[in-house]
Design a protein that fits this description.
Layout lengths: L4 H14 L2 E5 L6 E7 L5 E7 L16 E5 L23 E3 L21 E3 L20 E3 L7 E3 L12 E4 L7 E3 L12 E5 L18 E3 L7 E2 L12 E3 L8 E2 L12 E3 L22 E3 L12 H4 L5 E5 L2 E8 L12 E8 H11 L1
């Protein structure tokens, strides 16, 4: 072999040795243990344990010491406490799936020993309430509580031991009619919730979310009565807002989004009874780039819309209809004081696609 090729061959072997490889290992009866190895010569390993669909007798289940993820979903579990999640292997868990069970309540200390837990799935249960300090011991970055029976939740319940790490929280498809704001008197810092899904609940007003570092917020499917000045106070850092399929008769008041100076994407789709209150509705949205108005009563668009949306690049106004910002520079040489004209150019993408297929 020529000498110049040897370094390349050695590099290739090192890369292959460092890449992950998956194998299986002996496991608790009924469970499946999948081992993924990393590093040079497989010097580091993590185990994923799947004990789903076996029944409530499975807990507490012994797991390997290097277990990173444990799946206990679909086991008809009715309760989870500290003793169920204790033993060798549990203290190093980074992911736990308890979805599709029969949980109606949680012990306040259920997750207290899971000091490295980052992802927790409690979706599709019957939880009606959350203990105040359920998640304070774990550095959670992803919590899924969708499809439960929660009616009232305190934001302070999600003040996790995350050391500033962003938290993605899914509370969609519950019975929430109230979200209690974080109290500074609780003695804990505000939760680091960056992504919050509140879709398909029973909220009649946008909850007080001040103090949260929110970037993404979904309120789809809620019976919001109105959106007016002050509705989004304290959420200047929000970049994505979804208000699709609102129930009832939502009303957009002028300057209703005025506090959202950093908003880049706004989804108002599937609101057929949504009506204009004038282009001033979008006043203050100086950073907005994408606007979805498909399936609404907000078409045709007012001429002065772009005056309030200087950064807007595209608008969806119907099924397959996309409008883009078009700047008309005019003729050269320009006259002193000339201002380029800005307009919306709309095309039917479905019609264009049909034409393209016909030409093939």
């Amino acid at each position: 072999m020529p000498w110049p090729l040897l370094p390349l061959l050695l590099l290739l072997l090192l890369l292959l040795a460092a890449s992950g490889a998956q194998t299986t290992r002996p496991c608790f009866p009924g469970c499946q243990c999948e081992v993924e190895t990393f590093g040079l010569f497989d010097s580091f390993s993590l185990t994923r344990v799947d004990c789903s669909g076996l029944g409530p007798h499975i807990v507490p289940v012994p797991i390997p010491l290097d277990t990173a993820h444990l799946d206990l979903s679909s086991n008809r579990l009715e309760t989870v406490n500290e003793s169920v999640l204790a033993g060798p292997g549990y203290t190093t868990l980074s992911g736990l799936d308890l979805s599709h069970n029969l949980l109606t309540s949680l012990s306040p200390t259920a997750f207290s020993r899971l000091r490295y837990l980052e992802s927790l799935d409690l979706s599709h249960n019957g939880l009606a309430a959350l203990p105040a300090e359920s998640f304070t011991s774990s550095p959670l970055s992803d919590v899924n509580l969708s499809h439960n029976r929660l009616r009232e939740v305190s934001v302070s319940a999600f003040a996790t031991h995350s050391q500033g790490r962003a938290l993605h929280l899914d509370l969609s498809h519950n019975f929430l009619h109230r979200l209690l704001p974080h109290s500074s008197q609780a003695g804990r810092p505000a939760p680091t919730i960056q992504s919050l899904n509140l879709a398909w609940n029973r909220l009649r007003a946008v909850p007080d979310l001040r103090g949260l570092p929110l970037r993404y917020l979904s309120l789809d499917g809620n019976p919001l009565a109105a959106i007016g000045p002050g509705t989004f106070e304290g959420l200047a850092g929000l970049t994505h807002l979804s208000l699709g399929s609102l129930q009832g008769l939502p009303r957009l008041a002028p300057h209703g989004f005025h506090e959202l100076q950093g908003l880049q994407v706004l989804d108002l789709s599937s609101n057929p009874r949504l009506q204009w209150a004038g282009p001033e509705v979008f006043s203050g949205l100086g950073s907005l780039q994408e606007l979805d108005l498909s399936g609404t009563g907000l078409v045709p668009l007012p001429e002065k819309l772009l005056v309030h949306l200087p950064a807007l690049q595209s608008i969806s106004v119907g099924q397959g209809v996309q409008c883009r910002r078009l700047v008309r520079e005019g003729t050269y040489p320009r006259q002193p004081g000339f201002t380029p004209k800005v307009a919306l150019h709309c095309i039917d993408t479905q019609e264009l696609g049909a034409r393209g297929s016909n030409t093939l």
